[in-house]
Amino acid sequence: MVQTIVEVRRSGELAKYTLATTNRILDVYGPNGATGYDIGCSYQATVNASSISAKACSHQHHGLGLKDLETCERVFSGSNAVAPVIRHASYFHWLQFIDLHFWQWDADRYLELSKFLYNNYKQALAIIDDLTPAVEELKLALKITDADFERWNTEELEFLENVAEESDEDIEAMAYVEALESLTRAQ
């Protein structure tokens, strides 16, 4: 996979270079290419509004994507720590150190994930222990049961599934409210 990384400041003038690069990569590499730009989420919106939008969308379904490089940036930045060690190493040892670095990177992330899950589990158990008496008291006072909670969860899920997309009226209403808030701030 060919990957092009270009850093460009947020500028409409400079965005044309990223679009031209993306267009060329799509032409040359098709689904074997990938692009990524360190200009935030706005790049996808720029591509969508451009004339290469249809081409980019057709390639996204075949594996080509416009990638957010924040994670890649952290990974590659972390790998810079290996550079002084491998600068004068043989090719074999160079590969060996890079492999060791990324093996350790994965092990560290796995450890962090394990700690995160364990700590959240402990926190959930503590919340259950602390709040169970209060919940039981409220259930009696409000004459509700566990079945009511389950029904409410189901109703909420159904509601959220039905409002997954905003209606045009909701979008217009939000735009109107935002315009009123802007007017109030301006006055």
Detailed description of the structure:
- The protein has a 3-stranded parallel β-sheet with strand order 1-2-3, covered by helices on one side.
- It has 187 residues and is mainly alpha-helical.
- It is 72% helix and 6% strand.
- The radius of gyration is 26 Å and the shape is flat.
Task: Offer a few descriptive terms.
single chain, 187 residues, mainly alpha, 2 domains, three-stranded parallel β-sheet, 8 helices, 3 strands, flat
Itemize the secondary structure elements and their pairings.
Elements: E1 2-6, H1 12-29, E2 33-37, H2 42-48, H3 53-60, E3 66-67, H4 70-79, H5 83-86, H6 91-142, H7 146-162, H8 168-186
Parallel strand pairs: 1-2, 2-3
Question: Strand share of the residues?
Answer: 5-15%
The major sheet is characterized as:
3 strands, parallel
- SSE run: EHEHHEHHHHH
Query: What's the total number of strands?
Result: 3
Shape: flat
